[in-house]
Design goal:
Layout lengths: L14 H13 L11 E2 L5 E5 L7 H4 L7 H12 L3 E2 L11 E2 L2 E5 L12 H6 L1 H10 L5 E5 L1 H10 L14 E3 L5 E5 L4 H5 L5 H15 L2
Parallel strand pairs: 2-5, 2-6, 6-8
Antiparallel strand pairs: 1-5, 3-4, 7-8
Length: 213
């Protein structure tokens, strides 16, 4: 079984992110404050790709989507659809287990204002590519938001113009896997009504049908 490469804890490929990480070490010395590794089994058929760690979410806990509102919605949905087991308690050691599902981010380090720039997405592309290569059973990718959508397409050598982002859109990428889009499950999107719980669950209904579960 291949093990995907993760960035070194003191990764300095992106100078802006490395400097911001050091700022957070000083401001929040008890936080993870390092690239956030993927969560879930590499043998899974589903890979969920988010944007980047949140400063007081995954950057604090060291697990994707753990500790912020986006994780509350994501993990509750995964549990509801049988893609996770246990109780989500917004801690890395809460015992939650993913089932046939793995979660990563397009950018591994927390960016200022939660906004990575294009060069940082490109710099992290090798890690996402390695992840996808290692997932020999991969059938479906969920891209949470337009940036993740573009990162997946760029990693797989596909043009964004050929696969337009739209919520719950299904893209059959040659030669595979299948890419499914969702609006990001951020507090902003849910508070503004751009994404409702029902809309988010519809994405997982689509994915469950594709996976035959």
């Amino acid at each position: 079984m291949l093990v995907p490469t993760e960035p070194e804890r003191d990764c300095n490929i992106c100078p802006r992110l490395a400097a911001y990480r050091q700022d957070n070490v000083r401001s929040y010395p008890g936080f993870h404050n390092a690239p956030v590794p993927s969560f879930g089994d590499v043998t899974s058929e589903l890979l969920i790709v988010g944007l980047a760690p949140g400063v007081k979410g995954a950057n604090q806990t060291g697990r994707p989507f753990t500790g912020d509102y986006a994780g509350d919605l994501l993990y509750a949905t995964l549990i509801k659809f049988g893609m996770a087991r246990g109780a989500y308690a917004a801690r890395r050691d809460d015992g939650l287990k993913l089932l046939n599902c793995r979660i990563t981010n397009a950018v591994k380090c927390v960016p200022p204002q939660n906004k990575p720039i294009g060069a940082e997405v490109t710099a992290c592309r090798s890690f996402l590519a390695d992840e996808i290569r290692a997932m020999k059973n991969l059938k479906v990718l969920i891209a949470l938001g337009g940036l993740a959508h573009g990162a997946v397409l760029g990693t797989l050598g596909q043009r964004k113009s050929a696969f337009k982002f739209a919520h719950n859109a299904v893209h059959h990428l040659p030669p595979g896997p299948i890419l499914v889009n969702s609006y990001h499950c951020s507090r902003y999107n849910t508070n503004t009504g751009r994404l409702t719980t029902g809309m988010f669950e519809q994405v997982f209904i689509t994915v469950s049908k594709i996976l035959g579960s």
